Amino acid sequence: MTEPPDHGRVHRISVVTPVYRGASTLPALAAEVMALREVQTTKAGHDWQVVEWLLVHDNGPDGSADVIADLGEAFPEARPIWLSRNFGQHSATLAGMASSNGDWIVTLDEDGQHDPGQIGDFVDTALREGSQLVYAAPVNPAPHGMMRNLASRGAKLVFATFLAGGTVRTFESYRLVLGELGRSVAAYAGAGVYLDVALGWVVGRTSHVPVLLRDEGDRPSGYSLRRLLSHFWRLVLSSGTRGLRVVSALGVVFGVAGMLFAVYLLVSGVFGAATPEGWLSTMVVVLLSTGAILFSLGVIAEYVGVAVGMAMGRPPYLIVSDPAHGPLGRRPAS
C-alpha cells in the first residue's frame, strides 16, 4: 500500500480556550500550553505541536481581558479573540474554532482542571481508532461539588437515554476534533445550538481517552444555578425532535387507552356492572379527545421541529477532504 504524501508530518494543534473568569488561572495554564510549542512525540510515535492558542474573551467580570492582552504580547502563538459581549461558553468556543488554522482543534477550559500535557493521548486515540472527535473521559469526579456533579451526570444520562438519537452520547469540554470539521461546525451552527449536538450531526466516529481532572484552586465558578439550568435546557432544545415526538406518543397512548376503556365499560355494562349515568360517555370522550389533541400537537411539533432544525443550521451534508491524505492518515516516520 502506498503511504499518504504527508507521511511523517507534524500534527498542528490549535488550542481554543473560552475565557470568562480566568484572570487567576490563565498565567499557570499559559506556562503549560506554551511549553508545547516545540514538537512533541506521543507514546505511539506521532509528532505534534501547539501552533496557536486562541483565547476567546467572553466579557467576564474579572481582569481576564488584561491577562489575555499580556499573553498576546508575550507569545506570538497566543491569539486573543475579542467578543462584543458575553455570549456563553459554547458560543465563545465556536468563535475560537472558526478562527483556528490547525490540523486538529483542542478545546481546553480556562480553570486549569485539564492537563494540556495529555493532548498527545488524544492524538494517539484519534489515529489509532480513526476518530474525528475524541472526548476526555474523567477517571475522577470533577472538582465542582457533589450536587453539581450529580446534576451533570443526571443531565448527560437524560440526554443519552432520551434525546441523543445517534448523536454524541457522552461529552466533556476537553475534546479534540478534526480541524476542518470543527471549523465547518462553527460556520453553520446557529445561535443557541449546543456545541456537542452540532458536532454529533457530522462526526462519523467518536472516541474517549481517560484523563485525570485537576483541582481548580480558589477560582469561583462562572455558573450559577440559573446558568446551569439554561445550559441544560439548550441541550434539550437543540437535541432534535425526539422530545417533540413524545407528545405524539402520548396522544397515541391516550387514544388507545380511551378505546380500551370504552370496550371495558361496555362489557362491564353487559354483565350488569352499575356505572353512574353519563360517566361512561364522559370518560370515553375525555380520553379520546385528549389523545386526538396531543397527537395533533405532536404532528404540528414535527413541522416546527423541521423549521427549528433548519434555523439551527443542521446541514444536509458536509464535504470533507480524503481522510487518508489528512491528519488521520499521518503515521510516524519510519
Automatic annotation (TrEMBL):
Gene3D superfamilies referenced in this protein's UniProt entry, alphabetically: Spore Coat Polysaccharide Biosynthesis Protein SpsA, Chain A
Enzyme Commission no: 2.4.2.53
Keyword Transmembrane assigned: yes
Keyword list, A-Z: Cell membrane, Glycosyltransferase, Lipopolysaccharide biosynthesis, Membrane, Transferase, Transmembrane, Transmembrane helix
GO cellular component terms, A-Z: plasma membrane
Cross-referenced PANTHER family: UNDECAPRENYL-PHOSPHATE 4-DEOXY-4-FORMAMIDO-L-ARABINOSE TRANSFERASE, UNDECAPRENYL-PHOSPHATE 4-DEOXY-4-FORMAMIDO-L-ARABINOSE TRANSFERASE-RELATED
Family: Belongs to the glycosyltransferase 2 family.
Name of the featured protein: Glycosyltransferase involved in cell wall biosynthesis
